[in-house]
C-alpha cells in the first residue's frame, strides 16, 4: 500500500496527459458547435448593417469565443473526466492501479491536480481576456453592430434618473467630468410618470451642472411638435459621481476592479449583495473545474464487464450537471438577497465536494 497522495511520476504524467488532451478536445468541440449556432442566430443582424461583412463576423466570433470558453470549460472538464475514466476502466487500467496498491483518491490525484491547474488558468483567462471581450461586445451590441467603440472603458445601456426625468445612453465612456455619452435620450416626465417630452441626441457631455446634449431633437408629446436644437442642458441633478456608480457590470470588470466598485457602492450606501455574490463567484466559478473529477469519479470504478459502467457514467454526468443547476440557482438567490453573497457563491461548491467524497468513499474506499 502506498501512502503518498500521488502515484509514481510516470503514472501521474501519463494520466495528466490523457486528461489534458480530452479537456482540450471537448472544449474545442463545444465551442465550435456553439459558436456556429450563435453565428446562425446573429449573423443576420450583423450583416444587416451597411458596410459589415466577413470581417465583422470574425470580430464577433473573436469577442464571443472567450465567453463560451468561460461558460463551458467546466462542462468540458466533466465530459473529459467521464471519457478518461471510462476508457481506463474498460482497458482494466484502473484495476491494475488498484492491484498495485493505489487507493481511489490516488488514482484521481493526477486528474485533480490537472483540474486545479485548469481552474487557475481559467481564472486568469476570465479576468484578463473575457471581461474585456464582454465589455466590447456589449458596447457593440448597444449600437446594433454599427461602428465598434474604440474606447477600453465603455459601459453600455446606462439608465439614470433625476427626479422625474430619465436619462439613458447606449454607451458611456470616461469617468468624472470627462464622461461622454452617445445615443442619448432624455425623458421629461410629470409627477405621475407621464412623459411630457422626449429629447434625442447623438452625444452628451458634462456641463457643470447638468449634461449638454449636442445635436438634440426635442419632441413635445402634448402638441406633437418636433424641434431641432443645437444644444440643450438637462439632468442638472446628476453628478459625475452618481453616473460613475450608475451601472457596474460584474461581467465586464476584472476581480480587482470589481472590488473597488463594491467599496464605492458601500460608501455611497448602495446595495451590494448582488455584486458581492458575483465577486465571490469569480473565484468559485473557475474552481468548479477542480470539482469535476471528483463528481465523475464514480465512472472509474466497478468492473467494466459487470454491465454497470454505463450506469456509473450516467451517475457521474448527473452529479456534474446537478452541480451547475444548483450553482446557478444559488447565484440567482444571492442576486436578490435570498442568500448571503458568500453562501450563494460557495455553498454549491462545498455541498458537492461533500457529495462527491461521500459517493467515492462509500463505493470504493
From TrEMBL:
Keywords: Cell membrane, Membrane, Transmembrane, Transmembrane helix
UniProt-listed InterPro entries: LptG, LptG/LptF_permease
Membrane topology: Multi-pass membrane protein
Cell location: Cell membrane
Pfam families with a match to the protein in the record: LptF_LptG (PF03739)
Major subcellular site: membrane
Membrane-spanning ranges: 12-37, 72-88, 108-125, 283-303, 309-326, 338-361
Domain of life from the UniProt record: Bacteria
Protein name listed in UniProt: LPS export ABC transporter permease LptG
The organism of origin for this protein: Qipengyuania profundimaris
Gene: lptG
Amino acid at each position: 500500500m502506498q501512502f503518498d497522495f500521488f502515484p509514481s511520476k510516470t503514472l501521474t504524467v501519463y494520466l495528466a496527459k490523457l486528461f489534458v488532451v480530452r479537456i482540450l478536445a471537448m472544449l474545442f468541440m463545444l465551442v465550435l458547435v456553439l459558436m456556429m449556432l450563435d453565428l446562425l442566430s446573429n449573423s443576420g443582424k450583423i450583416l444587416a448593417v451597411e458596410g459589415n461583412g466577413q470581417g465583422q463576423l470574425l470580430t464577433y466570433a473573436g469577442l464571443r469565443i472567450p465567453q463560451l470558453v468561460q461558460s463551458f470549460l467546466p462542462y468540458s472538464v466533466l465530459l473529459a473526466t467521464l471519457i478518461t475514466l471510462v476508457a481506463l476502466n474498460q482497458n482494466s487500467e484502473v484495476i491494475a492501479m488498484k492491484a498495485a496498491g493505489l487507493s481511489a483518491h490516488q488514482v484521481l490525484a493526477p486528474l485533480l491536480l490537472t483540474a486545479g491547474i485548469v481552474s487557475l488558468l481559467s481564472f486568469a483567462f476570465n479576468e484578463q481576456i473575457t471581461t474585456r471581450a464582454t465589455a466590447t461586445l456589449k458596447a457593440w451590441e448597444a449600437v446594433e453592430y454599427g461602428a465598434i467603440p474604440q474606447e477600453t472603458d465603455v459601459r453600455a445601456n446606462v439608465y439614470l434618473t433625476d427626479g422625474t426625468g430619465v436619462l439613458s445612453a447606449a454607451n458611456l465612456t470616461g469617468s468624472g467630468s470627462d464622461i461622454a455619452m452617445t445615443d442619448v435620450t432624455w425623458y421629461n416626465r410629470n409627477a405621475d410618470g407621464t412623459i411630457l417630452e422626449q429629447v434625442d441626441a447623438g452625444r452628451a457631455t458634462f456641463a457643470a451642472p447638468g449634461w449638454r446634449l449636442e445635436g438634440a431633437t426635442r419632441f413635445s408629446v402634448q402638441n406633437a411638435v418636433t424641434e431641432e436644437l443645437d444644444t440643450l442642458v438637462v439632468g442638472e441633478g446628476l453628478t459625475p459621481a452618481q453616473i460613475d456608480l450608475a451601472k457596474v457590470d460584474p461581467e465586464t470588470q476584472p476581480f480587482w476592479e470589481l472590488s473597488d466598485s463594491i467599496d464605492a457602492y458601500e460608501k455611497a450606501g448602495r446595495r451590494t449583495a448582488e455584486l458581492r455574490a458575483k465577486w465571490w463567484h469569480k473565484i468559485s466559478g473557475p474552481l468548479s473545474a477542480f470539482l469535476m473529477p471528483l463528481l465523475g469519479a464514480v465512472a472509474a470504478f466497478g468492473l467494466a464487464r459487470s454491465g454497470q459502467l454505463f450506469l456509473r457514467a450516467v451517475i457521474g454526468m448527473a452529479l456534474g450537471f446537478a452541480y451547475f443547476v444548483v450553482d446557478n440557482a444559488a447565484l440567482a438567490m444571492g442576486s436578490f438577497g435570498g442568500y448571503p453573497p458568500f453562501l450563494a457563491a460557495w455553498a454549491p461548491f462545498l455541498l458537492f465536494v461533500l457529495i462527491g467524497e461521500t459517493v467515492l468513499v462509500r463505493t470504493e474506499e
